[in-house]
Amino acid sequence: MTLSVAIRHQLPGFALDVRFDAPPGVTVLFGRSGSGKTSIVNAVAGLLRPDDGRVAVDGDVLLDTARNVWMPPHRRRLGYVFQEARLFPHMTVRQNLLYGRWFAPRNARAEDPDHVIDMLGIVHLLGRRPAALSGGERQRVAIGRALLAAPRLILADEPLAALDDARKSEILPYLERLRDEVAIPILYVTHSAAEVARLATSVVALQDGRVIRQGPAAEVLADPGVAPAGIRAVGAVLTAQVVAHHADGLTEVRAGSDTLFLPHVPQTAGDTLRIRIAAQEVILASKRPEGLSALNIVEGEVHSIRPGSGPGALVSVHCSGGTLLARVTQRSLATLGLAEGSKCFAVIKTVAIAPEDIGG
């Protein structure tokens, strides 16, 4: 099942003009606040009627201004997960979950409630009311309620924005399971590069109401020209396989032919990980360094150099496991003699890779 979106709409301060197709999986709308992400989701949901456009889910047209087609929100069969869970406070978790089933068409393929409850890890919460839940628990229940309404598409508008870091780390593994185990496409809004790296099947990067890049997360986040969340959010995504866990609390993984050491992860040997490495945490060397405390030293080749408006530059380095980005000064590049095509070594501190940047 796929989502096709083409929207033009005049908003205060800028014009929204986007066109993209969302394949199965999690399509992330990624960009700064005010780039048009929520307006797109609201147009898909029917909460915003755009000046011009067409929206279709698996060929079923929800909106087509050229043909004067506009399906009202309650008939679109979409699940919407907001920043706040918006659960019914007088109902138990079980009652909130089952409430969504009232809106499922009789002939619709519905998710098995027991599977949803198990997948979201909320079986021990069924008898509680929302006031007795943490923020992360409430969001998991809200996702379950949306799933059990048998939607053909789930819309998630920054569902982790209201949570602290601990609650975000708690719920991200459940969102990864949702991506991998449920055959319903998800349109997910965020300005967090870590969430993009961990969850996205496809990324639509937005800036001032326009699509500036679309594609797999690893490709979009590794593009030096895409920094919709700010230069400090720029980073690369590597795919690696868990090799072993060591007694000193480190996990050994392999990305391409390179061995990396990470803080301990819960995955087992053979499992595949996504690892986001921020550009500001990568140091470059023209020769293999020795006598360093950093455990991760990766050989590569400079692919591109993008000078910044100040003294810095963003360097793209091709390695056996993918592409790394490094933020360095232009003076350092000149001192090292690095240019496009130069061999180099990327140095990454193990402790600089945060747990929220490592996902299944």
Automatic annotation (TrEMBL):
Q: Name the SUPFAM superfamilies for this protein.
A: MOP-like, P-loop containing nucleoside triphosphate hydrolases
Q: Which Pfam families match?
A: ABC_tran, TOBE
**Keyword field:** ATP-binding, Cell inner membrane, Cell membrane, Membrane, Molybdenum, Nucleotide-binding, Translocase, Transport
Please name the SMART domains in this protein's record. AAA (SM00382)
Asked whether the UniProt record includes Translocase among its keywords, one would answer: yes
Sequence ranges assigned to domain ABC transporter in this UniProt record: 1-233
Q: Which Gene3D superfamilies match?
A: 2.40.50.100, P-loop containing nucleotide triphosphate hydrolases (3.40.50.300)
Q: Which InterPro entries match?
A: AAA+_ATPase, ABC_transporter-like_ATP-bd, ABC_transporter-like_CS, Mo/tungstate-bd_C_term_dom, ModC_ABC_ATP-bd, Molybdenum_import_ModC, Mop_domain, P-loop_NTPase
Is Transmembrane a UniProt keyword of this protein? no
Q: Which residues form the Mop domain?
A: 291-357
Tell me which domain of life the UniProt entry assigns to the organism this sequence originates from: Bacteria
PROSITE patterns with a match to the protein in the record: ABC_TRANSPORTER_1 (PS00211), ABC_TRANSPORTER_2 (PS50893), MOP (PS51866)
Single GO MF annotation: ATP binding
Q: What is this protein called?
A: Molybdenum ABC transporter ATP-binding protein
Organism of derivation:
Lutimaribacter marinistellae
